[in-house]
Amino acid sequence: MRIFFSLAFCVVLLILLISAFYARRSPKAIGKTVYVLLLATMQPIIGNLVIVVSGNKVFSNIGCYIFITGMDVIVAAILLFIFVYCNLPCPNLAVRCATLIILVVDVVQLLLNPLTGHAFTTEKLIIGGYPYYRLVPYMGLTFHRFVCYGIILWAVVLLFRIMIHTPKIYAEKYVVIFISLMIGILWQTIMIFSRTPIDRSMIGIGIFGILTFYFSLFYRPMRLLDRMLGDIVSEMPEMMFFFDGTHKCIWANAPAKRFVGIKDDQLDEVSPKLIEKFGSIEDDSDNWNLQKMVLSEDGMKYYAIEKKTMTFDKNKISGSLISIRDNTEEQRTLRQEMYSATHDRLTGLYNREYLYERVKKLINSHSEKKYMVGFVDVRNFKMVNDVFGSDFGDYAIKCIANWLRTSFSGSGITGRLAGDTFGICVLTTDFDKKRVENDLSTFMVEEGEKSHHVQIHFGIYEIVDKNIDVSVMFDRAHMALKTIKEDFQKHIAYYDDEMRSKVLWDQKITQEASEAIRNKEIVPYLQPIVDVNGKVVGAEALVRWKHPEYGLMSPSKFVPVFEKNGLIADVDRYMWRSACEILARWRKSGRDMFVSVNISPKDFYFMDVPMTLKRYVNEYGVSPARLRVEITESMMINDTSMRNRILEELKSIGFIVEMDDFGSGYSSLNMLKEMPVDVLKIDMMFLRNDNYIDRALTIIRNIIQLAKELGIESLTEGVETERQHRVLAEMGCKLFQGYHFARPISVEEFEDRYK
Ligand code: C2E
Ligand code: CA
Ligand code: CA
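That is the input. Now the predicted structure with calcium ion docked in place:
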């Protein structure tokens, strides 16, 4: 028995020592207090160990002193620990001092015992044939016990009060310490009164120390955490269903239960209820999320559903969680935003960007099928707005959109490209050309009193190459559309190979242009201009491209292309400069002739034409009067003030301004009134139809007459016969140009011929 208890005390001491070591190193604030407590716990145990193993009166007495004074140390340490552990306010100085004095007095009176013998003595017992010295208490020891019980009672009361005032869930950390402390006290009390040899309660004190160590340094209130997590989940607006590894629902929060309409004891019904609501949502994977729409009494509802699977032990599925969030509001705004970002507000059709996107998807998703895109345009829509008002215009747009929607939405898609243009994409086989022609030829927009037949035109591109950009497809369809001129019968035009090769041609010559100017492939030709007697008085500079592949190219092959992409400005600048160079040479050789140059209406967008021309004449030192400029009436047709300013400027520099191609436009006579030009260049070509030559001559006579009255000189171009020359001369025309006199020829040939 002695050996057993000796060993037991040693083990307890060892554990306490290790614990003390860790407590000292603990980063927690309470670590030091626990350390002190553990050391204090060791003292009475050491005392008892000495008593048990010594078997000798002197050593046993020493053991008794260590044990008894150790009890003072331990109660003081427990009291201190309780204050710190329970976060109690520190007692005031008087109380602290009084406690300390009592303890010190007690220890001192105990230590005086060898002299006075007032506290205790020891009596010899034989246990297992071995001497054991048991305490025999006197007054001093009774005082000591009062002190120790008094202090420990104080500590217990403090702990008890804290314990009962703390929420149950959190009281766990006090309860364990309280119970183990009570067991220690009780055990010790029993030992005192029973006077059993070998104080076994030391083991209880040791366990109390160890529990204190664990609870104050390592214990985390897991139950509290569980409860808190549980409460948080319960109060979440999201619906949460927890399942175990066998897919049985084990818990659902309140919103979840409300959602499927079940009570606590009906968790088995969760799965069938979920299927009833959403259909089968299960998926083979462990984790997924999806968005579901459900039609309910309050309209369409949207839910974001997510499943998470949890694995705890050895990758075995331990449970899963399905959370469902009602995101109806979010989805509604999202869908609304999506809608306004992708649809046209007036018509509800797709807007251009989204149409392109959808077309791309559509044609790529059915690679075997043949699709076509259509570019739809309303002829003269501006006029509809001007005449009937923009409300009617909007209404007309809506009518057209509706017609497109009902006609093509089946297999295809429709969108609004811009103001009065729309785009469609349909299966080639679904486009019934006859039906569409028919609908369009009678398309009326009627609103109240107002009614109007709108001219709708379709340009169609049948998609051959699905890889080209959708915008290019619509460009091609648009190109086809532009071939429908003022033809009231025809509403549909197809993009064909000819257009395609034209596009390629345009691209090719555009790429080559700058290089061609630099290589002098682009050159001026001169066509003589003669007077009444047929004497050459000047020439028109006409551009030619000596193309290495295609030979001598006429301007009709490239000027319109360059007018579209702006390259015309480069060509014209080059031509004007060449004209000045020629004039400079002629001045030196004494040739008294002028050169007229063409100015494209587009030139005005790219440069300050008068200043550019002025710079060239100055550079070459030629008189501006020798350089005639040919403008057309389409020059800045809308901006009359700007146009007149430019004309005045040209004239003020000294250039002679000629109005080219007079008669080919529809408002020429009107223009004449407004445009202050010097020369009228009448184009015979537009009147060239031999059957009507007499009528043509009548018109020309009147024009010449009118011009004369306005002080404008006349020049007729396109003169092909001697008769025309004679008749025009009789009418008062002063200058002539045409194949009858000469075709445009190279500068060298011209200079050779007209010395
Ligand atoms: P345009 O300015 O009206 O030039 C007159 C055109 O009529 C020239 O064609 C000329 O060769 C042709 N022509 C002259 N006499 C007769 C005739 O008796 N019968 C017929 N059937 N045709 C005749 P070209 O040289 O092919 O020029 C065509 C158009 O190209 C020009 O018409 C002009 O608008 C434009 N163009 C020519 N050179 C230039 C240039 O340097 N710059 C700009 N911007 N345009 C140019
Ligand atoms: Ca001309
Ligand atoms: Ca002309």
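Residues 540, 598, 630, 660 surround calcium ion (ligand 2) (CB under 6 Å).
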